[in-house]
Write a structure and sequence with these properties.
The structure is a homodimer.
Chain A lengths: L1 H14 L3 H9 L3 H10 L2 H9 L3 H10 L2 H10 L2 H10 L2 H10 L2 H10 L2 H11 L6 H4 L5 E3 L5 H11 L8 E5 L5 E6 H6 L6 H4 L7 E2 L4 H11 L3 E5 L5 E6 H19 L14 H28 L1 H6 L7 H24 L8 H31 L2 H31 L9 H24 L2
Parallel strand pairs in A: 1-2, 4-5
Antiparallel strand pairs in A: 2-3, 5-6
Chain lengths: 448, 448
Amino acid sequence: MEDNNVQVRVMELIENRRFSDLRKLLEDINSTDLSLLLNELSIENMILTFRLLGKDQAAETFSYMEPDLQEKLISSLTDKELKEVVDELFLDDTVDLIEEMPSNVVKRILRTIAPKERKIVNEFLNYPSDSAGSIMTNEFVDLKENMTVDEAFQKIKKIGIDKETIYTCYVLSMSRKLIGVVTAKDLLLADRDKLIKDIMDTNIISVNTLEDKEIVARTFDKYDIIVLPVVDMENRLVGIITIDDAIDVIQDENTEDFEKMAAITPTEDGYFKTSVFSHAKNRIIWLLVLMFSAMVTGGIITNYENAFAALPILVSFIPMLMGTGGNCGSQSSTLIIRGLAMEEIKTKDFLKALWKEIRIALVVGILLAVINAIRIMIQYNDMKLAVIVGITLIATVALAKSLGCVLPMLAKKLKLDPAIMAAPLITTIVDTCSVLIFFNIAVMILGI
Amino acid sequence: MEDNNVQVRVMELIENRRFSDLRKLLEDINSTDLSLLLNELSIENMILTFRLLGKDQAAETFSYMEPDLQEKLISSLTDKELKEVVDELFLDDTVDLIEEMPSNVVKRILRTIAPKERKIVNEFLNYPSDSAGSIMTNEFVDLKENMTVDEAFQKIKKIGIDKETIYTCYVLSMSRKLIGVVTAKDLLLADRDKLIKDIMDTNIISVNTLEDKEIVARTFDKYDIIVLPVVDMENRLVGIITIDDAIDVIQDENTEDFEKMAAITPTEDGYFKTSVFSHAKNRIIWLLVLMFSAMVTGGIITNYENAFAALPILVSFIPMLMGTGGNCGSQSSTLIIRGLAMEEIKTKDFLKALWKEIRIALVVGILLAVINAIRIMIQYNDMKLAVIVGITLIATVALAKSLGCVLPMLAKKLKLDPAIMAAPLITTIVDTCSVLIFFNIAVMILGI
């Protein structure tokens, strides 16, 4: 509600060309909200409003804007205005921007950056897209071990304004190797003439530039830290990763797992940003694989024509058996895959997890079998059919839950992503097996 | 590798009873790693090692330990030792501990807490488990607006050591209403004689104690903040939430979505902590619902006995049609559910998303139909069959993708959790529909 009120107020002020009032109003709006607000305005009004922002606020708001809006805005800015915005951006935001923009815009952006800065930007652009290097920023405060606390404060005051975080300072040797960490809290609580080397913590958690960003995110989660230093092969500090970027990685990884588990090839782009054909392409591969496997199940059914000629009602149980098997398998595989991702379940727990799933399968399977048998007795009064369906259910549930446990853990052991062993694949395998079990038991009991 | 080395070294030192060396070694180990290390030791050695830790490190390590290990440790500590640990814990960790422990242990813990503190702990315990109040802590630095920057530093130094975060200070009125925020950065960069009210930010992002913790987590993500103040109905500051707790909420919500989307009733406990019967209970409800729906599909099949008597091969296509329909529906619903959760897709985008899914469905459906038709012509050389299967595939894929888009968005609109409209439910609905479509088209084309 409140957001809408602000938006209405902004539109009114634009309409009445009361720009100094508008400027004052804008000053009080948070940059995140401002970026959302700009998104709702017409292009002309958006540019007009953006130009009223102070330098800092303009850059911060810009960094929160969606890439397509950024592109539109850039095309309306003069080179001088663009330079002002880019100058105020944090390095990691500049790198993100360059990665998102089309090449003609990139050229304009790079022209606005001073040669020395441009070299760093280019270096940052060269880190693999899933590495720690790709999400780090070079804005950190570095101290020397022989500085006093007072000198450290002087340095923070001098350079601190431009830094994304000043609360953790890094102590570097002459060759820029990372030798210690000092927090702003340590500095505040220490005497002003103490030496940095006497208060610094040498027990440092850091990652290498080439470390997988998934592991980076997990490091944040594990150690409850808000910033993580990134070092090169020689342990020289090259950048830091802040927790807001780590959260983005966590969310991206989760989205990727959701996609893989629904048989979709993951992409980095958002739902609406991805074209119809890309969507189709991301989905068709697994659909084809699963379709061919399902044809096998179909082929098996034709081998048992005798069975369903003898008892046509058998065919009507296929959807229930396949559905239940698939659902049981997807329940187990989801819990195991998530447990592995959260490191709550380890591959060494293999037998423990399997034994748990088998016991759960027996409880669930017997219950479902009994309910089905009762229903069959009431509806058809056919004991043989009740026994066939009951035994098939217990066997199918046991198999589905075992596979749901075994396959993801096997994938993990083979260094594959367990998420590919999710519902769709397991459902397809269980489908085939359940039909085989069903007809074999039927043939046995009916004596066909 | 390194972790193992440390563990071996710790065991050696215990074996040889070189406790002063052990104490020195322990000082350099991070509390998170230490909690993992203690988990690997025998109970006696764990307690022995824990007693060697300094007060701060002991409390921090304790807060990272698993509840069952905490319980074992507490039962071996004297009341005095327990008091020392609990005194050093942050309030939110104490509250978490009390929530996890059995009642006899809780009584012992509460006895060690001073009456005044105990009152606050009890208040915190009373917030609903999904509310902002349940994850906040009361350790924050509060300032008055007429203090100078210098006085603020004095206050931070005096009380700062015990606070979970000192980097964001809160300015309170006489009635403890939240009127402003000052960061340590603001303080460091300001002149020492400036007044707090001149540098404080009055544009505050805060949440109410009863706000859903999911919304709290989203607020962190949206505004890239590392700490969030929690106020009561009268806007009085009662606590703060730090980002590490927000990340835990994000991960818990993701796990909950994974579980709901796999037809599991979500629980707060971990995989191995949940008993076999609880697991079975969490899974059986949806299995029953889905089983009964699948029986409907089975019932429909029996109505078309004539069709599969005329062309028995028809039955063999059921698994492929049901499987493909289910997979298509789960692909769409997963993307839509995730998009809604990440606020990338809004309910107002309904038609836009539906139109996208329909176009994707046509691309995917036609491709699958053509591939199937070719296969049928090669294998059976039956044009009618190829047409029946082809048309059914296109219709099923279109229906599955439309439902996968419509149902989660409808749930969101009705203020239900979109995650319940995931793969299992949609698969079951699509199964029924695909069988209906298949036999109707068959009856029409075969003229039975």
